[in-house]
Amino acid sequence: MSAALASTAVRTAQKACKHWPHKSPALTKVLDNRSAFKLDPKHEQPMGTWTSEEIRDAVDEHVMLTWAPGKARHNVPIITHGEGVYVFDDKGKKYLDWTSQAVCSNIGYTVPDNVVEGTVRQMKKLPFIYGGLGITEVRARLASLVSDILPGDLTGMVFPSSGSEANEAAIMCARRYTGKFKVINWYRSYHGGTTNSQQATGDFRRWFGGDNVPGFVKAFAPYPLFWDYAGDNEAERTQMALNMLEEQILNEGPDTIALIQFESVIGGGGVIMPPPGYMQGVRAMCDKYDILMHCDEVMVGFGRTGKLFGFQNYEGVIPDIVTAAKGITSAILPLSMMACRKHIMDGFEDKPLGWGSTYQAHPVAMACAYENLKYMIKEDILGHVQELEPVFEDCMRTLTETHPSIKQYRHVGMFGCFDAHLPNGENPQLQHTAVHEAFVKYRMAYTENGLIGLLRAPHLHVAPPLTITKDELLDGFDRQDRALYVLDEGLGYQEMRGVCL
């Protein structure tokens, strides 16, 4: 290239990259970038030394809640520690955890030594490796263990951080594998708080996201809230519910449906199990129309129902995809899982799943899960749940017979729910409406009697840690019995007496 030509090329390039002057608006407020930030001495104080007032001040100024209005943070107790199935507040009050918090603290608050030691050992050895850059031994071990305890050929494993993420991975897996887009979910279900999992949700919480994400179709569960399928024969009613689902599939177009995604047991919506034959019918329908079947086990997986997985309550049913969370670590650390069958796993040999996160397959969380699951198996937690299940059911029946405010109950394993009703038989409130004053008073009595747990009125959940003893279980029902007299009165029933002993 001649010198003249080279000079022209340089000048041209320089001209091409010149900018046009443009004045951006000035900041209306100059913010301190804290380049010289110094640590406040209060943050050097050992954990556990802040006063209740200091904690409250920090909460008032900085803490936000999620599923509750922000002002509720002012009344949430300050919990200092836990032991066994109990937690303690800053005033020394002892609470029996009656719902395993969000149905997740499955082995309570005395963490087994093997879980502590295994988690700390991993933290010291390798606190983190991004899942796409390296494979850890604990990842291989946990995948192998979960595959061993899952039935059938559910062998492909992904380990996200939350149930919502696991369901996102399941949706993406199904769409990528099938090349189809639509997902069918039940009304009254809950699948998570991220975009797709929130839209998959059937209850009011999907409204918060605008309820405008395409590709999700809602179906009625076999037990709708306000009406029954016709007839008294359960088998015929089950077939009617399946016919209704099949008609939806046909009208949506089987070639457009990637996934039918149901909770194995509807959890937040009231511990609802499909009738005999229903889930088997769904499995057969998925096979007939080449649709993947997904069982969401986030709440009931790993022992809650007295079986390792909720879908094992439905004989012969093996889903194509299973998700779980909560119980995989007993909520000690955040972790979830998505498992798929071998042919689906093989389908991604030459293409990516299309879902991922920085903390997928976090080694420290996986170490916690690995040791937690080994503890549950070695200590026969499932056998303990099965042994206490008749006691659990007997107490639920007794409280239902004792308190007129309770319409009915349902239970499986260590998972139960009471339904409240008004004297005229009507539902006292829907979950998305303002709380009925009777439930406010009930909540106060519940707390005063030393119980702590979720309230999803008009459903009253019972789901204590799976390690609870018989005496502790009876004591918990006795405390709830006393609180229910307040609900009886609040809903307009004459006071009655009785106790579960």
What this model shows, in words?
By secondary structure, this protein is an alpha/beta fold. The protein is built from 14 helices and 14 strands.
What labels describe this entry?
single chain, 501 residues, alpha/beta, four-stranded mixed β-sheet, 14 helices, 14 strands, 37% helix, 13% strand, disordered C terminus, transaminase activity, Aminotrans_3_PPA_site, Aminotransferase class-III, pyridoxal phosphate, Aminotrans_3
Write the layout of secondary structure elements.
Elements: H1 3-16, H2 52-62, E1 79-83, E2 86-89, E3 94-97, H3 100-103, H4 113-125, H5 137-149, E4 154-158, H6 163-178, E5 182-186, H7 195-200, E6 216-219, H8 234-252, E7 257-263, H9 278-289, E8 292-296, E9 321-324, E10 337-341, H10 342-346, H11 363-378, H12 381-402, E11 406-412, E12 415-420, H13 437-448, E13 451-452, E14 459-462, H14 470-490
Parallel strand pairs: 3-13, 5-6, 5-7, 7-8, 8-9
Antiparallel strand pairs: 1-2, 2-3, 4-10, 9-10, 11-12, 12-14
Helix pairs in contact: 4-11, 5-11, 8-9, 12-14, 13-14
Order of helical and strand elements = HHEEEHHHEHEHEHEHEEEHHHEEHEEH
What is the share of helical residues? 25-40%
Strand content: 5-15%
- The largest beta-sheet arranges its strands as 4-10-9-8-7-5-6
How would you describe the shape? globular
- Report how far the terminal alpha carbons are from each other: 99 Å
How many extended strands?
14
Content-based structural category:
alpha/beta
What's the story with the biggest beta sheet?
7 strands, mixed
